[in-house]
Amino acid sequence: MLFNVPEPTAALGAIEFRIDGGTTRKVDYVAVEEPLEVRVVHFDSGRLVTSKVAVTMRTPGDDFELAVGFLHSEGVIR
Question: Which SUPFAM superfamilies does its entry note (predicted)?
Fold first, then answer.
């Protein structure tokens, strides 16, 4: 069974600005981006097989919906 566990979509990070030759550092929230591997489980000659379809970068959250939409748009599922 798949679970869509919420993950943080932002993290604190140090931002460095360079304006007119000067440098300023500021702590601010930055977007989090992580890889998501999409796999399909199917039968092949009576055996259960797992096939890796793609790896994509995404902001965490709604992973199941993203995977289903991706598989549908690529014609893997209907």
Answer: Cytidine deaminase-like
